[in-house]
Amino acid sequence: MDMSEVPYNCYYEPIPAPGGDDPGYEYFQPTPATASVWSQDMQHGGPPAGLLMRAMMRAVPDDGQEFSRITTEIIGPVGLGVNRIRTSIPRPGRRISMVQADLEAQGPDGTYRTVARSVAWRLLGSDSTAVADAPFDPLPASPDELPQTVGFPTQDTDAVAWGKVGFIGTTVTARQPGRNGKTPAIWIRPAIPLVAGEEMSHLESVFTVLDVANGVGTRLDPTQWSWMNMDTTVHLITQPTSPWLGVDSDLAVGARGYGASFADLYDVSGFLGRSAQTDLIAEQG
Length: 285
What we know:
Largest sheet: 14 strands, antiparallel
Shape: globular
Helix content: under 10%
Structural class: mainly beta
């Protein structure tokens, strides 16, 4: 695998607050590495979700609580202008707490609008080893036991041949037979840092790529149909132990122009949790 294929160094560059803008936010300049497969003028849902996770992790105390349920809402197209994030803790607590991060994007007129939001429940960790029970065994092969590639295969009969468009071309993937639906299960991780000059945490890495679940769980032809998601909800039963995320996804399509993507998620050590996404199904052209 040739990492020189990845033309970018990071997804976001941290910047000072532009003159006159509220200093209570963190400010970032997205790079072209964030670009969506659906349009080069907006970001793929993955990097903003990773940036929101980064913000939430920095907003909470080191109190033994762990991220359990995380919902990211995509409120509007996440533009490639200046992005800014602010966090809050709507529900503090010693055993259970909630943290929220809002992402705003600057428009051509210089004003900001909220384009994405993540809300997470955090639960106090304790020892429940005696009753631990996962619904599935680990994926048969780890990413290090499989051929790895940048992006997705361009000659693919089992899933969508996404290639290396935008954000997709900044990921490293490996695949094996899936157990959920008719498409392969994939291992995926970012090939570049989330924020320039920083090393990603495992949670940041996982959430930067998790949005791909709706794109890898179907054989629909993206030149004929689009299936953009408005949200991603993740339920974790443990915390990731590496940058790799295993995704075994299936897109259920209804007859009324919408559907949902459901994915079983894996860590290199075993079952990690599940995700669900709402998808708008639209015929292209």
